[in-house]
Amino acid sequence: MIREFKIYLMLLVAATLMVGCQKSEPIEAETDIEQPFAKSELLVKFTPEVADMIEQMHLTRGADATRSGEATVDEILEVVGACQLERVFPIDSRREEITRQSGLNQWYVVRFGGEEDAEQVARRFLSLGEVQKVDFNRTIKRAYTGKATPLSEKKLQQAMASATRSTMDDPLLVGQWHLINRGDMFTEGEVVKSVKDADVQCERAWELSSGDESVVVAVLDEGVFIEHPDLKESMWVNEDEVYRSTSDNDNNGFAGDYHGYNFASDSGVITWNTAYDSGHGTHVAGSVAARNGNGVGVSSVAGGNADRAGVKIMSCQIFSGNVGSSSIAVARAIKYAADNGAVVLQCSWGYVSGCANEYDWGAAGFASQEEWEAGAPLEKDALDYFTHNAGSPSGIIDGGIAVFAGGNESAPQAGYPGASDDYVSVAATAADFTPAVYTNYGLGTSISAPGGDQDYYYDYVDDEHNYGEVGCILSTLPYNISKSGYGYMEGTSMACPQVSGVVALGISYATQLRRHFKAAELQQLLIETARPIEDYMVGRKIYRRYVADIGPQQPMQIELSQYKGAMGSGQVDAAAFLEAIGGAGEPMRFPNLYIALNGTVAVAPALYFDAAEGATFSVVIADGAVASVEEQGAKLVFKGLQQGVTTAVVKSSDGSSQNFTITVREGATDNGWL
């Protein structure tokens, strides 16, 4: 039975702030409430045999092929007036074998022009044994309007002239309590709303690692302002692509994807200043990897330091203004991230909680993992692809980690997809470890992190204002949103990148230690090392909700006991996480190589040796007729000369060496598949 889709995917921007203005109210997506999905197209996962037949039809008939070659399928295609069959995931020649192994090549967009709508056509397809799954191409829109609270240029200049509070010299770090909380920001007399170390424990973690530029975090969000002075050095660059090119120079299926890709408009041009953009993608990116120690603006969890670059941000744009995205765009963004080097998926979005108040939020979302998997199978397959196929079996991390915002409906269940057992779902806390008044909690919640809580801090004046923004998260913003380039937001959206940044910081530390991990191992360490916050779930939390056009209301309260045991394993602790990584994992070993006949494989040997910076490497191949090697900068490039197997040894200039095997065969990939 096909589920009636009355669910709206929302960008989990907590009701955003504007100077002298008010919180924005949640709005429903501007679509037919009964059918918030494309009415004349369907997403169909065929069996491998039918998918192969469709590919052959495309090869013989070109891109306009409208039939599969399988009689029972074509009978339905004929009845519904199918006018186009398109593979959901474009072909990336480098990753096609892995794509086929995972079955993502079997997903097709079926566009039709008959009288039947998507639900009717879905019923027809689900009756066929040649069809494995059916999904709808849902329209996906942000659930909030409004923009962030800008930091004034005056305050930026004042911060530039003030002293710093840690080894980083970023002037705005003093206002980033989520990174370093001294417990002195929100305390007046006997009223204490700030607790020392109610942060992500970056200061101690930075003594071990501040990030590594080999680690890539994909930000699925609005586009990132790539020219921001605190972000431009942190942007991922596709070195095989040409900036602003309209051609697919690296043959990965996406033209012009230099810093990522705009899946909302199907373009290589990342945008951040479209009408109705909120600055959300830039704010999230800054929390993860704004450049640390550059004397400019803010700090971030994994943005490096004055001497070393931090992790890189890949902008996978799925929202642009108030123009709707789609299920296809989201799925493609997830797979793109895995295929192009990202190992952390930063997702400050999700469905409304299945336990949300329907009066306030409209139709509730998925109530269980089984319901979500059945209702969003394309999304599930794409996320499985990322968690299983990001990274590398011979790299620091085998698989990827997806981090989701838990939701802002004050509901006792996190929203999906984050609530799934396979991903990390983040709840939000204030500067005293108490749950933010809007946060989801309970079932499906993995961990907590600072997300801001403006309603809780309205009584604290920040020089010029009394709007509680200083109790929110301070990060980067585009100049069209904030003239200073910085400002405040709150929400599980803001808690989520704190955790994504900590995950990336942990992978960076593992890179420094030359330790290999399965993604699931790192994810478990993240959860196990969280700081317990049960002792703070006592009594009542008093706050003043700010209502549009009215202002702060009379004091309200929540009972903290309802959150006890419901905020995941505790608050994320970067220092404890890195310390645990230091005693876990396996030593990196130079990998056995599988090379196609006349093909090449490039390897960076420094990744596999605990050698001093500047060490050189040499290789001796036992049978030079099978393969050759040459040095190209920091990489060794091996070429397959004839089919066969040979042993080899790679030596470092410090005297250490490792043995490995080279296998050359026709059609091989570097992972050994044929």
Question: What report would you give on this structure?
Answer:
The chain is an alpha/beta fold and 674 residues long. The protein folds into 3 domains: 38-137, 2-Layer Sandwich (Alpha-Beta Plaits); 149-220 and 342-581, Rossmann fold (3-Layer(aba) Sandwich), CATH 3.40.50; 590-665, Immunoglobulin-like. Helices cover 21% and strands 22% of the residues. It has 14 helices and 34 strands. The protein has a 7-stranded parallel β-sheet with strand order 11-12-10-14-17-18-19, sandwiched between helices. The protein has a 4-stranded antiparallel β-sheet with strand order 3-4-2-5. Strands 28-34-33-30 form a 4-stranded mixed β-sheet, with no helix packed on it. Strand 31 (627-632) and strand 32 (635-640) form a beta hairpin. Helix 8 (327-339) packs parallel to helix 11 (377-389) and helix 13 (519-528) crosses helix 14 (574-581). It is globular. The two termini are 39 Å apart.
How many helix segments? Answer: 14
Backbone shape: globular
- Give a quick account of the main beta sheet: strands, pairing sense, barrel closure: 7 strands, parallel
Adjacency order of strands in the biggest sheet: 11-12-10-14-17-18-19
- Indicate the low-confidence ranges by residue numbers: 1-10, 12-35
Quickly count the domains: 3
| Subunit organisation of the chains | single chain
Classify the helix fraction into a percent range: 10-25%
* Number of β-strand runs: 34
Going by CATH, the architecture of the largest domain would be 3-Layer(aba) Sandwich
- Average per-residue pLDDT, rounded, comes to 89
CATH level 1 name of the largest domain: Alpha Beta
Please name the CATH topology of the largest domain.
Rossmann fold
The proportion of residues in beta strands is 15-25%
